[in-house]
Amino acid sequence: MKEMFQWQTTSGNTVTVGAVTVTPQSQALTIRRSFGGLVWNRPSAVLVERDGHVERLPIRDVTRVVQLALLGFSVVFLIVAWITSTRQQEVEQ
User: Fold this and answer.
1) What pLDDT is recorded for position 35?
2) Distances in Å between the alpha carbon of 7 and those of 34, 40, 73?
3) Phi first, then psi: what are they for 81, rounded to 5°?
């Protein structure tokens, strides 16, 4: 199973400007099958090093948060519509 699915965090090329060093990080999900596979990458954070102190700044994926919220609202709407439809059918009988 571990050969089929792999989740890893990788660091990109480090850039240094003056006394600040910045390193981007990304996460990758790799799915391998006998007939092909899938690789899904997304940025996850930026490491900033200043004066010997390293700070990890996460990258928030606002689009994904909005998509999940819309999915949640859609599910709630469908459940309410189903309940309303079921009650209306019971009343008509």
Assistant:
1) 86
2) 19, 10, 29
3) -65, -40
Amino acid at 27: Q
Burial 24-41 (b: 16+ CB within 10 A, else e): bbeeeeeeeeeeeeeeee
Identify the three-state secondary structure at position 3: coil
The end-to-end CA distance of the chain, in Å, is 52
Please name the amino acid found at residue 42.
Answer: R
Tokens 């998509």, located at residue: 67
In 3-state terms, what secondary structure has residue 73? helix
Separation between Cα atoms, residue 38 and residue 51, nearest integer Å: 40
User: Whole-prediction pTM value?
Assistant: 0.63
Which residues on neighbouring strands pair with residue 45, listed in sequence order? 25, 58
| Bridge partners, residue 11, by sequence | 25
The per-residue pLDDT for 80 is 96
Rg (CA), the chain: 23
